[in-house]
Amino acid sequence: MSKRRANPEQDIHRAVVTHLKMRPVTNLVWFHVGQSNYGKNSKGIAIQAAINKGLGVRKGVSDLILLHAGLFYALELKAPGKTPTEEQYAFLGDVDAAGGFSAWAAGLDPAIRILEAWGLLKGKAS
């Protein structure tokens, strides 16, 4: 049996999604943005990247997009010690400039604190 390769960032994503499934405020709409592989160089991925770009796929879109009470939120998730890319910072800045709320978090606890501060989760994590 093969072991699953450790991916701390994916583990954080899964844990945050668990909180969103178990503790959402009423009428919260949210989704996780999948990876597009935009910009990779292998032939097949390059072709798909060109198609995606033409369809409006954007580099740097935050991992979680949330909508509640007419307000737009974007949350970028990182493993501890990691920071957003230039494209991710640009997306967060564009969300703020458009009147939305954006943040990035390195680790599970900071991500949960942000979602709680935004009023998007019921109760408090212990």
Descriptive report:
- With 126 residues, the chain is an alpha+beta fold.
- It has a single domain, classed as Trna Endonuclease, Chain: A, domain 1 (3-Layer(aba) Sandwich), CATH 3.40.1350.
- The chain is built from four helices and four strands; from the N terminus they run αβαββαβα.
- Strands 1-2-3-4 form a four-stranded mixed sheet, with helices on both faces.
- The longest helix is centred in the first third of the chain and has 15 residues.
- It is globular, with a radius of gyration of 16 Å.
- It starts with 7 loop residues before the first helix and ends in a 9-residue tail after the last helix.
- The model has no long low-confidence stretch (mean pLDDT 90).
Please outline what is shown here.
The protein contains four helices and four strands; from the N terminus they run H-E-H-E-E-H-E-H. With 126 residues, the protein is α+β, with helices and mostly antiparallel strands. It has a single domain (8-117), classed as Trna Endonuclease, Chain: A, domain 1 (3-Layer(aba) Sandwich), CATH 3.40.1350.10.
